[in-house]
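The data layer described in this paper is built around a simple, fixed record for each protein. Such a record has a labelled line for the sequence and another for the backbone structure tokens. For reference, a complete record is included directly beneath this paragraph.
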Amino acid sequence: MMKKANMVLEKDFKIAEVDKRIYGSFIEHLGRAVYGGIYEPGHPKADERGFRKDVAELIKELQVPIIRYPGGNFVSGYNWEDGVGPVADRPRRLELAWRTTETNEIGTNEFMKWAESVGAEVNMAVNLGTRGIDAARNLVEYCNHPEGSYYSDLRIKHGYKEPHKIKTWCLGNEMDGPWQIGHKTASEYGRIAVEAAKVMKWVDPTIELVACGSSNRSMPTFAEWEATVLDHTYDHVEYISLHQYYGNRDNDIKNYLAQSLEMDDFIQSVISIADYIKAKKRSKKKINLSFDEWNVWYHSNEADKLIEPWSIAPPQLEDIYNFEDALLVGCMLITMLKHADRLKIACLAQLVNVIAPIMTEENGLAWKQTIFYPYMHASVYGRGIALNPIISSPKYDSKDFTDVPMLEATAVYNEEKEQLTIFAVNRDTEDALELSCDIRNFENYQVVEHIVLENPNIKETNSAVNQSVAPHTNGNAQANDGSVSAMLPKLSWNVIRLEKR
């Protein structure tokens, strides 16, 4: 008997306007993300500044609105002054976070100019590991102050007359992690974060700040850390960060695809902690969330142990993603959209070569990994109002989860363009799922496209010469009499696009 799932969409069942920054990404000075990724001066497709135009085109296809930079673990040992001024005068440094050599050929100004060229804002991180309050305020002055002060005039002297006007700033990175350079207790971090926040905003009161949450949910410090940090910083920051990566180490597809339920619970937990501090402080202010590192990451763990220390831009964290990874990334995107009322920034970590949707060959091609597609579809078609669908779906149990819905789905309504987009993953490993979606509130809306990402081999990967995991538009969704019907193939990512006729 055919398995069936039902969904009801109403215009008035609104979660919130989707902040476009939810489709952000991340570039760290790590592996081949910068050198050999976005920047390769000798490449046939490099522009006059050495940045790869083929990579830039793929990033533009993703419509990435904001990119976190320059780290990551890297930032906790980074002297931003090393990356500005004449390139010939910049020092080479031992980079302790990833045990490589940093040439500093690319720094703040080059990255800002490049980000502008791909249509992205920058979410700039400051070093609260080896540095602190002074370096943070000086960097804000260098980047954002128009002129007439030491650091703003230094930027002008370096050839950048106009301020960069960076709006969003991260107060350090993963400071509860023992692996972090300058690892701190929650109170130590909370104190330095609030003092850095104060002076950064004294330099530029228009900026928004992200305080570091736990490095991941399994940290022994989780929850207590968030509460303590927000207790210190609540009045001075706008966001608390979340980081989480998933992997299928046990080769259990059913359990793997259910991990987005854990992500959902993680988000709910952090919202609860933030609201507890709000209540404790009798505050009217609401702290929102920045999920500024998320992805699948496990394929490259063994290979990374073989990297020669102190090499320059070695191939680190180069996960080659398979089809099942794309399905989980789709489920994670849907999960984030369900929390659009509180989740305002998210950064897929990372953008090029390092656990990334885009890969490059040295002097060769740039190509799309399997996870490129759900990320692109959500970014391009998921702009508007996140709706709260009422869903009934068959369920299954797995090793770590009970009542996992076969249908993971949500919808975004773009009122201005009169478009409705349904994002749906069928987690069923055996059968197609018959979807019936009530859209009677959306009069005269017709299906214009049903995009499907499917593959008979869940371990299938892409490469520069083989793009066997790619979407097609042969989905069979139809709209009749206020209802959408569609057959969602087993293990598939679906984008059903409707427009008013």
Notes: The longest strand covers residues 288-296. The chain has a mean pLDDT of 98. DSSP finds eleven helices and 25 strands in the chain. The radius of gyration is 23 Å.
